[in-house]
Amino acid sequence: MGFGRPATFSRIVHTIGQEADYPGGAAALLGSGTRLVAVLGPDGTEVNGLSDAPGTLRVLGAASVTRGVLRLTGADQPVLTDKIKAQADALPPDARTIDPSIRYHAGRIAESNRTLRR
Fold it and tell me: How far does CA 55 lie from the centroid of its chain?
């Protein structure tokens, strides 16, 4: 596809590279009315990201583990926060201090994309 040509897309991935809790970040874009649930890895326990119930809206990477975005999981927030902390604590020593295990988000994003329901 060349520049300037019209195109139709069935899916758009929007990436922001800023603090998700800041004004204009992922939490603000999602809005307080959005309800998110955990996207679990193949083992059914590791949190790979968040999505809405139908799975059409997904939040992956570092944004999915920030306080402002996790707040959108409602009553599930304390359990998910504990799971994410446990995931970070299980990492090699050089990754444990990178809260919350940012080093491994690339693998989690890849897994989430591989298992995306179509």
Answer: 12
